[in-house]
Amino acid sequence: MSPLHYRALTALAASLSLLLVACSSSGPASQASAPHDPPASPQNAANVKAAAADKPDEMDTEATIWTVLGLAKKPSEHQPGPRTGNTVSPILWQAALDTLSFVKFSTEDPLTGELVTDWYSPQGKPGERYKIDVFVLAPTVRSDAVAVTVTRQELTPTGEWKETTIARKVEDDLESAILRRAGQLKREWMKAYAAK
To answer: How many C-beta neighbours within 10 Å does residue 92 have?
Structure first.
């Protein structure tokens, strides 16, 4: 697209937003400008004033062009938790971050649900190191929605790291810990969301 098209689209969006703001601001002033309306009785005028006093004209500070057009939610309408992709559960994502908070991350991608740690050595065992990959596979909290793989390496006498096997129970235990934390977070977030 040429720059001219981008300018035209920007001008169209600005015009549309001004039009929407003008249409959304309604009140007695627009009624008073009608030239052929009969004069209002004193009782009707009192009813209009009472109705205006009941509904304060507050400005919607969260509205954007996208929320007005219905293409996005206002910040107060978002579910609690981190923003993730459509196929990634925010609760499981946060639970994985909390469970693995003892180690640094080399990759964090909440849109695809991939979380990879740096290599780390357990305290007192400098001759072995681990790397953990977590994949959040679904938008809901369920047992098959998270997958964990752990890579283990040992330091050889020649000073090279050699990959070794690790028991599947280690990966299962990490998945269980993430799911337990997700259950706690779900209860906390639902309670906080209901209190709004």
So the answer is: 29
Structure tokens at 154: 């040992």
CA distance 70 to 89: 23
For the residues of 98-119, what is the DSSP string, one character each? HHTTTS-EEEEETTTTEEEEPP
In the chain, beta strands by DSSP E = 105-109, 114-117, 128-136, 146-155, 161-164
- Expressed as residue numbers, the domain containing 63 is 3-73
Q: Are residue 51 and residue 136 in the same domain, yes or no?
A: no
Q: Helix or strand or coil: residue 175?
A: helix
Count of beta carbons in the 10 Å neighbourhood of residue 45: 12
Place of tokens 């004193």: 42
For residues 34 and 131, membership in a common domain is answered with no
Rounded CA gap, 135 and 137, in Å? 6
- Residue 129, domain member (yes or no): yes
Predicted TM-score (pTM) above 0.70: no
Cβ 183 vs Cβ 92: under 8 Å:
no
108 and 41: one domain? no
- What stretches in the chain show pLDDT beneath 50? 27-35, 52
CA distances from 3 to 6, 12, 60, 120 (A): 5, 14, 33, 50
The token pair that represents 157 in the structure block:
């006498």
State whether 143 and 188 are in the same domain: yes
pLDDT, tens digit (0-9, with 9 covering 90-100), for 25-59: 554 444 444 445 555 555 555 555 555 455 555 65
